[in-house]
Amino acid sequence: MSRLVVVSNRVAPIKEGKIAAGGLAVGVYDALRQSGGIWFGWNGEVNKNPQMRTETVGNVDYVTMALNKTDYDQYYRGFSNATLWPIFHYRVDLARYNREEYEGYRRVNAMMVEKLKPLLRPDDTIWIHDYHLIPFAEACRMSGIRNRIGFFLHIPFPAPGIITVIPPHNELLKTLCYYDLVGFQTECDRLAFQDYITREVRGVIERDGSLTAYGRNFHTGVYPIGVVPDNVRQLANSYRERRHLVGYNSDGRRRKTIVSVDRLDYSKGLVERFRAYAAFLENFPEHRRKVEFIQIAPTSRSDVKTYQTIRRQLESEAGHINGRLSDLDWTPLHYLNKSHDRRVLMGLFSRAEVGFVTPLRDGMNLVAKEYVAAQNPDDPGVLILSRFAGAAQELSSALIVNPYDCIGMAEALDRALRMPLAERKDRYEHMMQAIRAADLDTWRDDFLRDLQSFTIHQAVEAEKGKSVNEAVFVS
Ligand SMILES: O=P(O)(O)OC[C@H]1O[C@H](O[C@H]2O[C@H](CO)[C@@H](O)[C@H](O)[C@H]2O)[C@H](O)[C@@H](O)[C@@H]1O
Ligand SMILES: O=c1ccn([C@@H]2O[C@H](COP(=O)(O)OP(=O)(O)O)[C@@H](O)[C@H]2O)c(=O)[nH]1
């Protein structure tokens, strides 16, 4: 079997026990630990002299590098997170475009290819992750790299009317056609991309389902990222420090807990969620003092202006709710800006009656799946889930809500807290079936299997005397 080379902007912290930032790092870390290989990307540092560093842990070689300040500003903070992220999450109002940042983004992609190239073997399978690295395959091909290259987009792919807001959308999306396989979280995302290719650039859907555009033929597919359910449950069971997790009433009865965990990002719908919680306490006063809401929201991309704004807004909303509703012996909302160890989170999930996951848009949202997988099957909690999270496509037995509907979310909280055991178990069983059917191994194995099958045909074409790069998929 060929070696797996994973490339992503974010690489999970190399030291065991350090907290991974976000679902990509969590997911790729678990997937790569099983198969082994190379994980190449940014080490999260910004300094003048970006040196490459290789560290081997188990069967994975982590090859990471720092970025210099200009590259960081233009590629990560700028085009990736101030242009692509908001637009791909339908927040055109928060996006800005700067041509120099776009050029910096292209330059960093090309630079990363040149750094990776000497490490590659001819039969390596290269798997590129996420919106930071869309042009990576094109830069590889320009540099003469002929390996199979797949791409997985962790975030939503928006409707063509939204994506065309990016001034160089044509040039940018053309580079996706240099991959052999482009994977999405949901069929909705895949169809939006296919729509763009067929309508905007007059691409063609072939009989085998592949796409031909800009003279290149390539495949697309849907590979929802998952979790390792047994591992989640194990972590949840291993967390014993109960006293940190639950609040008690003055009469000694345990308060019910609503829990949310998100990076502090405007796409996660935190303001709308806080307002819904306040509306719930106003409209259903019988729950007051009997419930508390724990929102864990570690800061993220805190040097991007829109993230500073959302942080200020949330601090004010949280202060407002607690100022208005708290009592000497009851704080309705616990808002924690700190990241937490996974074991603590899974322990918290398993003890919370409600998982409140209501992003305005989300590629998948692993927290939703983790919350369900952490539950005690004999007495499971209830997941309230936004219809705009990729996870809602699979977890249709959650209480599905529209995060723009404040009263609807307040009603869902009331319903969740009152839900009888039989209904909770029924919904939990359905969701666990979906979580097991599309777990993390399935995500990795399905993607790599499809990428490999493409290669077999490439090889056939190559034998017939064609150059590998000119090969066309034959089904
Ligand atoms: O690397 P950062 O800038 O600190 O951001 C963290 C990650 O956020 C995003 O995660 C996405 O991937 C998850 C796993 O597939 C998915 O569940 C979630 O819906 C996405 O938002 C981002 O896409 C990653 O590149 C970042 O590393
Ligand atoms: O303090 C924290 C906050 C989050 N996470 C993990 O980070 C991931 C977040 O992934 P998700 O897909 O929900 O959202 P993203 O942050 O990638 O947009 C989940 O595995 C969380 O358990 C963590 O380990 N510690």
TrEMBL record:
<dbReference type="InterPro" id="IPR012766">
    <property type="entry name" value="Trehalose_OtsA"/>
</dbReference>
<keyword id="KW-0808">Transferase</keyword>
<comment type="function">
    <text>Probably involved in the osmoprotection via the biosynthesis of trehalose. Catalyzes the transfer of glucose from UDP-alpha-D-glucose (UDP-Glc) to D-glucose 6-phosphate (Glc-6-P) to form trehalose-6-phosphate. Acts with retention of the anomeric configuration of the UDP-sugar donor.</text>
</comment>
<keyword id="KW-0328">Glycosyltransferase</keyword>
<comment type="subunit">
    <text>Homotetramer.</text>
</comment>
<dbReference type="InterPro" id="IPR001830">
    <property type="entry name" value="Glyco_trans_20"/>
</dbReference>
<dbReference type="GO" id="GO:0003825">
    <property type="term" value="F:alpha,alpha-trehalose-phosphate synthase (UDP-forming) activity"/>
</dbReference>
<protein>
    <recommendedName>
        <fullName>Trehalose-6-phosphate synthase</fullName>
        <ecNumber>2.4.1.15</ecNumber>
    </recommendedName>
</protein>
<comment type="similarity">
    <text>Belongs to the glycosyltransferase 20 family.</text>
</comment>
<comment type="pathway">
    <text>Glycan biosynthesis; trehalose biosynthesis.</text>
</comment>
<dbReference type="GO" id="GO:0005992">
    <property type="term" value="P:trehalose biosynthetic process"/>
</dbReference>
<dbReference type="Pfam" id="PF00982">
    <property type="entry name" value="Glyco_transf_20"/>
</dbReference>
